[in-house]
Specification:
Radius of gyration: 41 Å
CATH superfamily of the largest domain: Ribosomal protein S6/Translation elongation factor EF1B
Helix content: 40-55%
CATH architecture of the largest domain: 2-Layer Sandwich
CATH topology of the largest domain: Alpha-Beta Plaits
Structural class: alpha+beta
Largest sheet: 5 strands, antiparallel
Number of domains: 2
Distance between the termini: 126 Å
Number of strands: 5
Length: 329
């Protein structure tokens, strides 16, 4: 019995030792493999980080094939835009990009010459102006601008001259107001608010700057015109070498109320009483001679128009755009 117990004990010890050895080997294997897995995961994450950083820095877009396709599409789009930019945004006679600051005395002399020219042209075409009308620059009847302000004021002066000449050539009846934003006053670049109206020709607010694209200078003109004059005005703004955009237009008819039925006999040249019913042969009325000219019932009254127009100055510093401007021969 004791011998059997001793042999059993030796067997148990051998089993225990075998399990311990196997356990240690398995644990070592698990530790080694898990460590390798973590190292591989860390290496993979580092590769992904390096690739993303390199892709952003070098402009890689997913793959070289996609990058080539994108470049080809960009070239195609640029080829379509180039003539539009050259013809409409950088027209040959659009000299805004060349405007520089000048001596205030010289600037006032140029302004006075423009005022004189516009007043003479309006008078020749029968366009009514207010006395001493200064086309949005009444501030400078009694003062001079600062040296730095003359550049933006020159751009506004050129825009006003172009707009007013279009109105005059379109045979408007009168020009009652020309307003501009006071860009010469201190304000934040691109600010759209502020600047409450303090003078009759001041338009509240300031120009709007879209970085690396354009600057929009707002103007507002009030004038009286016939319906036939509106089309040439819009055509003139469209064909101008300067880029004008009509932002808003309010139109009020001088004849607010339509004619009443009782007014028709008077408008037809009668005495105002209702015509008596007389039997006549067919064609007698049509063959009779009218006592007055044509009387228009609708749509032919004078129009009071308020038009908001923006002058768009295309940014000449854009890469590749300046070279698109047509060369003067």
């Amino acid at each position: 019995m004791n011998k059997f117990k001793l042999q059993l004990s030796k067997f148990d010890i051998g089993i225990i030792i075998a399990f311990v050895v196997i356990g240690l080997m398995g644990g070592a294997a698990w530790w080694y493999l898990s460590g390798q897995l973590q190292a591989a995961q860390a290496a993979d994450a580092q590769v992904a980080t390096d690739y993303n950083a390199s892709a952003v820095a070098k402009g890689v877009v997913v793959s070289q094939a996609n990058a080539k396709a994108l470049a080809a599409n960009n070239d195609l789009l640029q080829a379509q835009l180039d003539p539009l930019i050259a013809n409409y945004l950088l027209a040959k006679d659009n000299d805004l990009g060349k405007v520089q600051a000048e001596d205030p005395v010289a600037w006032k002399h140029d302004l006075d010459e423009d005022i004189k020219t516009l007043t003479t042209e309006a008078k020749a075409e029968g366009v009514t102006l207010k006395d001493h009308f200064y086309f949005g620059f009444s501030r400078y009847q009694t003062e001079s601008p600062g040296d730095a302000a003359t550049a933006v004021l020159t751009k506004q002066r050129k825009a006003v001259k172009a707009i007013v000449e279009i109105l005059v050539k379109s045979a408007v009846k009168s020009i009652t107001s020309v307003q501009r934003t006071y860009e010469e006053d201190t304000h934040a670049v691109g600010s759209m608010g502020g600047a409450e109206r303090t003078e009759g020709d001041q338009l509240p607010g300031y120009s709007v700057v879209v970085p690396d694209t354009y600057t929009a200078y707002p103007f507002e003109v009030d004038f009286d015109a016939s319906p036939e004059s509106l089309r040439p005005i819009l055509n003139g703004l469209l064909k101008s070498p300067y880029l004008f955009v009509v932002r808003k237009m309010e139109v009020h008819n001088e004849q607010v109320d339509s004619p009443r039925l009782d007014d028709l006999p008077r408008m037809a040249g009668g005495n105002g009483s209702a015509p008596s019913v007389v039997q006549s042969a067919p064609g007698d009325v049509a063959a009779s001679t009218p006592t007055v000219g044509p009387q228009y019932l609708f749509g032919y009254g004078a129009l009071h128009v308020k038009m908001r127009i923006d002058l768009i100055e295309w940014n000449p510093t854009l890469t590749g755009v300046e070279a698109l401007a047509p060369k003067k021969k």
